[in-house]
Each structure stands twice: as structure tokens, then as C-alpha cells.
């Protein structure tokens, strides 16, 4: 990525610095200039990226045909142990029913921050940028330990080992992938990779990856090698559940409406917006791409840009101005080379939300959640979700999650009213 200049100062740009720092920077010029620089860097490679993606989906379609599946969708969903109905429902309900909730929140963010319009460079802007403290790695571990306390000693003693035994690589080195990753050698301790920039969002990344790798520990210890890995459909549940624990801890540390609003806003932006929007819109995009391939058509960069613009516009309506740079968003994820993985972030988050609410309202909530983690891949997604009382064969858990988010936005707006904003 090329350097960019804002307020007479030159800034280095990369995937890591843009996604971890600049995209929610409090300064509008830094957000805008970094986004344009980032998009310019992506655009130079759009044709190569499109050709590589076309080769990927064509190979998946070929395998689906060779193995006798009715469609590439059926082939890719088979290993997740779910059907097309559950896949389509996840995308359709969120696009229809959660979109108005997300639009309402972003319009509120624009109002609080004095923005006449919100562009795609602004949509990750924090509601209260002035209240985004710097966090050290030691502070982060302390927050993580306090957040997971409701799960009890068995879970906490495993989490403590991440700091004690240095299982996490934090260095934001040049060329390092953005985001967070966890590796799981069977019955060996996990490894976590992330890039530390000292923001609260990094704490969410850390506790997210500890959620993944913590599940590895519990399933490895209670299942054979062949049953250790849970279905991809809800593999993001343990990670996002931990994020909800972090937001819950932050919310309950103060009676100050500004602090409570801060915690709820991060619940939305760091957990749900990433999983219920970013990855869900990728899934809606993927569905259109695979449908093209099913119909015997092909695509290039311009077609992918057009599809992404259609998806973004359908979801955001008039809440965000969608321009040509925004359409390059399809180039920002490696998930397209992992089959129908993107939608599972929201699917997992529905299960983790059900688990979180079960923890808050049931004496057996913690025990039930640990039993879900320990089950690994020994049960189907439907069977595992029933451990915490969630019947994902119906749309109720998803609708309950959307209602939970709508209530969260109502609370945020109420706190803003108390603050006169």
C-alpha cells in the first residue's frame, strides 16, 4: 500500500495498519486519505485477484459435479452438516431484518460525531472516539481474565496459561497478515497470531482467538483426534462468546452512562458488526458469485465490483454512501478460498448469543457452555446448540439475536440522550 498524507504528515499504510488503526481513526482526514490509499493499492491487483477467485470457484463447481451433488452449494455445505435452507435463512433474515437496525445505529454515530454524511471510509468510526483508551498487553490479559471469570476455574486456569507460557505472537511486523489466527496441534498447546496496536479492538481480537483455541483445548482433552474439531457451521461460536463476556464486563464496571454506552457500542462494532455485517455481506456476495457459476456464467473484476456494490447498497440503504472504492471490499478477505465459510461467523454468533443469554439467566449456563466446548465434533451443529437450549432448526435463535441487537441500539441511543447528544 502506498503512503498517504494527512495534515501535512506522511503515514505508512498496510493491511494491518489500515484495518487495525486507520479505518476507525478519530480524524476524518486520516480515515478518508488512508481509505483512498488502501483502495488504490487493492485496485492495482483486482484483475489478478478476480482470476484467482474464478479458478477457485470453478474448481469447486467441478468437484461438486464429479461427486454427484445437486449444486456447488450442497457440496460446500455437506461438510458443515447443515442444509441450504439454514444457509439461505442466515443471509436473508440478516439482510432484511438486521439491516434497519445497523442503519439506525450508523445514523446515530453520524449524528453524535457531527457528520453530514457517512462514507464507506467512516463506517467503522467509534461512537465516542475520545473514549478509546490505549491498552497494553498486560492490561489486555487482565481484562480477559476478569471477563471469563463467569465460566469458572476450569476455564480460567487454561486461559491464564496464554500469558504465563507466551502462546501469543503480538508483533505488528511488516508483511504480517492482519486479523487474528489460532493453530491447534492436537493435544499440544495452541498458538495465536495477531498484530498488537494498543487499541481496545485488539483486546477483542485477543479474547476472540483465546475463545477459538480454548475450545481446541477442551475438545482435544475430551474427544479423539477424529472428533476434536467442531463443524465449521458454528466454529466461530466459542470466539464470539468470549467477546460478549468482554463487553459484559466493560459495561458493568461503571454506572456512568458514557462508559456504559462505550461498552455497548463496542459490543456492536467489535463483535456484531464484524461478524453480522462484514462477513455476512461477504456471504451474500459469495451466494451471487456461486449462482453465476451454477448458471454457467463467468466473471472478472468489474463484475465482482458490481456484485459487491449491489450487496452493500441493499444492506446499507441511505445510511452510507457507497462509491467505487467501497466495491473493492471483496478483495480484503481470504475466506473466499475456504468454501462457504463467511456466513458461519454470523451463524456461530447466533449460537454464542444464545449461550451468553443462557449464561445470564440460567444457573447451569456456564456448565452447559463448557459441555458444548467439550463436545467438539462429536455432535452435529443442531445437537450441540441444543446443549444450551437453542433450536437452530428454526429461525427463533436468529430472530432473538436480532432483537437483542435492536435493544442494544435502543440502549445506546438512550444513553446518548442522557448525555445530551
From TrEMBL:
UniProt-listed Enzyme Commission number(s): 3.4.24.-, 3.4.24.15
InterPro entries in the record: OligoPept_F_C, Pept_M3A_M3B, Pept_M3A_M3B_dom, Peptidase_M3B
Classification via Gene3D superfamilies: Oligoendopeptidase f, C-terminal domain (1.10.1370.20)
Requisite cofactors: Zn(2+)
Ranges where the Peptidase M3A/M3B catalytic domain occurs: 22-401
Record's keyword terms, sorted: Hydrolase, Metal-binding, Metalloprotease, Protease, Zinc
Stretches assigned to coiled coil: none
Gene Ontology molecular functions: metal ion binding; metalloendopeptidase activity
Hydrolase keyword on record: yes
Annotated GO biological process: peptide metabolic process; proteolysis
PANTHER family in the record: PROTEASE M3 THIMET OLIGOPEPTIDASE-RELATED, SIMILAR TO OLIGOENDOPEPTIDASE
Record NCBIfam families: pepF
Protein name, as recorded: Oligoendopeptidase F
Species whose genome carries this gene: Streptococcus pneumoniae
